[in-house]
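#struct-pred
JK: can someone run the complex with iron/sulfur cluster? inputs below
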Amino acid sequence: MSKQLQIKIADTAGFCFGVKRAVKLANEAPAKYPGSKISTLGPIIHNPQVVNQLAEKGVKPVELDSAPESGVAIVRSHGITRKLALELEEKPTLTLVDATCPFVRRAQKIVAEMSSAGYQVIIIGEPEHPEVTGLISYGEPQNTRVVSSVKEIPADFFTSRKPSRIALLAQTTQSQQIYNEIAAALLTIKGELRCFNTICTATSNRQSEALQLAKECDCMIIIGGRNSANTNRLYELSREVLTNSYHIETVEELNPDWFAGKETVGISAGASTPQWLIDEVVRKLENNE
Ligand code: SF4
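RT: done, structure tokens with the ligand placed:
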């Protein structure tokens, strides 16, 4: 690797508040509930290294639809559906540790309140994402729907059969641009429109900083799980402005050829990437290994 390689690390790289909280609760669980079988409802975060470390401590993921009858079940930061939450609460021998991110919880409450008040609730998001399947479950099926673009707004909304009251919110990791486009389209409909900007700033700040770094550097390394949607998005954004952008999960994937003739390398990481994985990459680059 080049001796002059200057390393710039994004301040926003790595765990966000909600993920940090969920991983902390999972790490503390074995000491807090000794002798109990401890499960996370789905992988606690989209990072295989962290999931494996927890499994070694006895905290293992189970499928959402095979929640245990007893022991300890940890709800991850995405949250779960209202139906599953109620089912779990009714299991007398199960202890529930709720690590739903408070920002996701707020969005769930908005869906419940607006839907029961009779608004047509529009959630901007990816329909299959666990956070979104959780969000939609808090509304009534007849007035709560998910859209991912302006094109998916029901055509009825622009006719005389339009709803008189609409509430708009988003999956916490949605793009602000898509939110703005959909809000602008809904504003053309006469009637009441309530907009709740539930997009988490942890995501938008991370994306802006990565983009800025990509503009300033000769090469970008994005660290995070390949199954992490926010890491993949970070990588795509970086690659749009800098072709020499690389997505890695672990330090072993660094390729010295990427840095030949380069002077600066920027580093960012997804919200589910632990600090130790970032540190390993930085150490290797600093030591010019
Ligand atoms: S990205 Fe934001 S909403 Fe999602 S877990 Fe992190 S802090 Fe919570």
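RT: quick notes.
The chain has three domains: 6-14+202-286, 17-101, 103-195.
The radius of gyration is 21 Å.
JK: thanks, will look after standup
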